[in-house]
Specification:
The protein is α+β, with helices and mostly antiparallel strands and 435 residues long. The protein has two domains: 166 residues, Creatinase/prolidase N-terminal domain (Creatine Amidinohydrolase, Chain A, domain 1, 3-Layer(aba) Sandwich), CATH 3.40.350.10; 261 residues, Creatinase/methionine aminopeptidase superfamily (Creatine Amidinohydrolase, Alpha-Beta Complex). The chain contains 13 helices and 21 strands. It has a six-stranded mixed β-sheet, sandwiched between helices. Strands 9-12-13 form a three-stranded antiparallel β-sheet. A three-stranded antiparallel β-sheet has the order 10-11-14, covered by helices on one side. Strand 15 and strand 16 form a beta hairpin. Bound molecules: glycine and manganese (II) ion (MN) (2 copies).
C-alpha cells in the first residue's frame, strides 16, 4: 500500500470538513484517449486522482466522504479474458486490500452507487467542466437524489472545485515528494550531460531526443514530463518546438528543454549549448545575459517573495543587457513599462512544478501575486529569442535563441536548486561539450 496517500486523504478530509459541515468529493480517473482507430494513447492517471489514491488504472472513480472519512473506489472488476490482453487489474477486492478503499464497487455500478454516495451531503467537491462526459454522470446523480427528496434524502446544493483544497495541498511539497523530485532531477541531469557530451554537427535533433528518452527510461522514469524540445539553430526560437527533425549544423546553438517524470513527479530543465563547444561572440553575449538574469532571479527566491518579483528581476537584467548590446534602444524604464523587451523575452520566468509540469496551485491571492512559502517548487527560466527574420537587428544576431531553466525548491531561509550541477556557466558548458 502507498504510504503518502492515507496521510493526504486525512488532510483532505480535514480541510473539506472545515469548509462545509457535510462534504463529499468525487474525483474521476483520467479518461482514456483514442490515438487512432483502435489504438489508445499511453495512459497516465489524473494527478489529483493519483495524489489521493495511488491507483493508476483507468475507468475508476474515487468518492471521499468527509463526514464518515471513507474512501469508496469504483474500479474495473477482475476479468480473466481482458487481463490476458491488458495485464492484471486490482479489481474490487484489490482496491480495498492494496489501495486502502473502505468500500469498492465495479465501475459498471456507478449510475446506481453515485446517488447513494452523494446524498445527504450539502456540498460536492467536483471539478465541473474538466471532463464533460463525466459532468453528465455527476449531474444525473444529483438529479436522481433530488427525485428522492420526498423520502427525506437531501440533494447537494453546491458543487465546488476540489482544487481550492487539493491544489493548495499539492503546491506545498512533503519531504517525500521533494525526495522523488530530487530523483527526477538527478535523472534529468544525466540526460542533459549526455546530450552535451555526445551531440555532434551532422546529427539530427531526434537523435539527441532519443538519447534523452533513453536516459530517462534506463533510470526508471516512466515517461518524459512533457514533450522534449530539441531545437537547433533557428529552431531554438520556437518556444514549443516539437518536430525535432532538423540536421544540426556546426556552430549551432542547441536548446534542449527536457525533463523526466519519475514516480508521477516532473522535472523541467532547459540548457542551451553551442554544438562543438565554441560560442560565437554574439551567442556568448546572449547566453551570458540569460544566465545573469537566471542567477539573479534564483538568488531572489525565498519565502515572502512573489513570482512577479522574480520575473521582474529577469526582465530588468535582460532589458538592460539588450540595451547595452544595442539590440534595443531608448530608456530602460520606458522599455520595461511599454513591454519593449517582449519581442525577445515573451514568456514568464516561472511556473509551479510538481506532479504536473505546469503544476496546480493559485498564482494570485486576493488579486495579488502570492508570496512564496517553504516547500513550494518553481522553475526559473528566462530566455532571449531573436527571430531569424528580425531585420531590426544586425544579421549576426538573428536566429539566436537561449533559455536556461532550473527547478527551485523554496526553503525556510532561501532556496535550493534541485537541478544544480547541470553544466551552466560558459566554462562548464564548454567542458561538458568536450572542449
Ligand atoms: N517545458 C515547459 C516549460 O518550460 O514550461
Ligand atoms: Mn521547460
Ligand atoms: Mn518550465
Amino acid at each position: 500500500m502507498r504510504t503518502d496517500q492515507p496521510k493526504r486523504r486525512a488532510a483532505f478530509f480535514d480541510a473539506m470538513a472545515a469548509s462545509s459541515p457535510s462534504a463529499v468529493a468525487v474525483i474521476p480517473a483520467a479518461p482514456v484517449f483514442v490515438r487512432n482507430n483502435d489504438v489508445e494513447h499511453e495512459y497516465r492517471q489524473d494527478s489529483d486522482f493519483f495524489y489521493l489514491t495511488g491507483f493508476d488504472e483507468p475507468h475508476s472513480v474515487a468518492v471521499l466522504d468527509a463526514v464518515q472519512r471513507r474512501l469508496t473506489l469504483l474500479v474495473r472488476p477482475r476479468d480473466r479474458e481482458r487481463e490476458v490482453w491488458d495485464g492484471p487489474r486490482a479489481g474490487v477486492d484489490g482496491a480495498k486490500a492494496a489501495f486502502g478503499a473502505d468500500e469498492a464497487f465495479a465501475i459498471s455500478e456507478l449510475a446506481d452507487k453515485l446517488p447513494d454516495l452523494i446524498q445527504n451531503h450539502s456540498r460536492v467537491y467536483y471539478r465541473l467542466g474538466h471532463d464533460r462526459a463525466f459532468d453528465d454522470r455527476l449531474l444525473a446523480a444529483v438529479d436522481r437524489v433530488r427525485a428522492r427528496r420526498r423520502t427525506g434524502a437531501v440533494a447537494p446544493a453546491e458543487i465546488v472545485d476540489p482544487g481550492v483544497i487539493l491544489h493548495e495541498m499539492r503546491l506545498r511539497k512533503s519531504p517525500d515528494e521533494v525526495e522523488t523530485m530530487r530523483t527526477a532531477a538527478r535523472i534529468t541531469r544525466e540526460a542533459h550531460e549526455l546530450a552535451m557530451s555526445r551531440t555532434r554537427a551532422g546529427m539530427h535533433e531526434y537523435e539527441v531526443e532519443a538519447m534523452l528518452l533513453d536516459t530517462f527510461r534506463r533510470h526508471g522514469s516512466e515517461r518524459p514530463a512533457y514533450g522534449s524540445i530539441v531545437g537547433s539553430g533557428p529552431n531554438a526560437c520556437v518556444l514549443h518546438y516539437r518536430k525535432n527533425d532538423r540536421r544540426i549544423e556546426a556552430g549551432d546553438l542547441l536548446l534542449i528543454d527536457a525533463g523526466c517524470e519519475y514516480g508521477y513527479y516532473a522535472s523541467d530543465v532547459t540548457r542551451t549549448f553551442p554544438v562543438g563547444g565554441v560560442f560565437s561572440r554574439e551567442k556568448q553575449a546572449i547566453y551570458e545575459l540569460v544566465l545573469e538574469a537566471q542567477l539573479e532571479s534564483i538568488g531572489a527566491a525565498r519565502p515572502g517573495v512573489t513570482l512577479d518579483e522574480i520575473h521582474k528581476l529577469s526582465v530588468g537584467v535582460i532589458a538592460r543587457g539588450l540595451l547595452r548590446l544595442g539590440l534595443l534602444s531608448g530608456d530602460v524604464d520606458k522599455i520595461i513599462e511599454t513591454d519593449g523587451y517582449k519581442r525577445f523575452f515573451m514568456h514568464r520566468t516561472s511556473h509551479w512544478l510538481g506532479m504536473d509540469v505546469h503544476d496546480v496551485g493559485a498564482y494570485f491571492a486576493g488579486g495579488k501575486p502570492r508570496p512564496l512559502e517553504p516547500f513550494m517548487l518553481l522553475t526559473v527560466e528566462p530566455g532571449i529569442y531573436i527571430a531569424p527574420d528580425d531585420e531590426t537587428v544586425p544579421a549576426e544576431w538573428r536566429g539566436i535563441g537561449v533559455r536556461i531553466e532550473d527547478d527551485v525548491l523554496v526553503t525556510e531561509s532561501g532556496s535550493e536548486v534541485l537541478t544544480a550541477g547541470i553544466p551552466k556557466t560558459v566554462e562548464e558548458v564548454r567542458r561538458a561539450c568536450g572542449l
